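Q: what does this look like with 4'-deoxy-4'-aminopyridoxal-5'-phosphate bound?
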Amino acid sequence: MTVLVPDGAAVRARPHRSSDPDIVATIGGTPLVALDRLFPPARFQVYAKCERFNPGGSIKDRAAKSMVEQAIASGRIVPGVSTVVESSSGNLGIALAQLCNFHRLDLVVVVDPRTTPQNLAIMRAYGAKVEVVEHRDPATGEYLPARIARVRHLLETVPDAWWPNQYANEDNARAHHGTMREIVEALPAAPDYLFLAAGTTGTLRGCAEYVHAENLPTRVVAVDAVGSVIFGPPEPWEAAHKRTIPGHGAAVVPALLRPGLADWVVKVTDSECIRGCRSLLAEESILAGGSSGAVIAALQQSAAWIEPGATCVAVLPDGGDRYLDTIYDDHWVESYLQQYLPPTEQERNTP
Ligand code: PMP
């Protein structure tokens, strides 16, 4: 069988043999490392699931693989014929670009001006077409609805186009049954607490479903961004905190979300998330992305109520390489933190 690659040249499709591991087969199986310096184990033990070790650099490789391969298996998309269209500002776009290149699918990623030049360059290097939506949705002032409107237009005009729709696609969530299984298998017993970042809530739903299906004692703590609407409308004080760091938090309630998936929700400001990243780097030599800093900040805030001797796992969704101009740039951080101070205890406790 021959398929077309984006430049029009015909190549032979690779035969798939299970004994023949390829780059897609390396998705998952990420390391779990102890964070003993940041969280001395005399109190409770913390391990980090380091998702940057996926070949596309983030946890979204799992979701992209699951969504694309299920769509191929069901016949919804055909390598060499179909075009995948998705809205993403970063990690999912990169993960899809890798998967679509591998499976000889065309890909259009709809982004907005906040997507970094480096992320755009990575997507293009994999052969994705990138469309930048320049204007925010007039009704909400957000880019997301404008990006979705562009996706809908492309679905109507591009032949054999398919939208994975990461906020509603159950295969996004199903990918994370494996994430939780790997965590449990790497430890002597299931952890007492799982701290994870919520965006599309695919990670949350998949891990929580596994916990419930296996009847595990693990309590799931979802980490959201101050100002996000995922778990309900923001409190009035949240309006003063602009949400800039991508990954966790959302401007819409994801269709994947179900009641009861999270035992607790912790909301973190951008400045707390920057501090979390910086402490992970200073103490553990881990250069992690913004939402990882949020997860660490949430753990630090929760330390007082985590019982002594507990085991906690923090899912770190990506690496810090994609945040060098922001979170790891002293000048950016200095001017940013001056603008947005963390909320006081009183603010947090005022309904
Ligand atoms: N952190 C980062 C860096 C991400 O890219 C994402 C995906 N948007 C998340 C956290 C949230 O993961 P999920 O979409 O599975 O909720």
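The pocket of 4'-deoxy-4'-aminopyridoxal-5'-phosphate is lined by residues 58, 60, 90-91, 197-204, 247-248, 289, 291, 317-318 (CB under 6 Å). Residues 1-15 have pLDDT under 50 and may be disordered.
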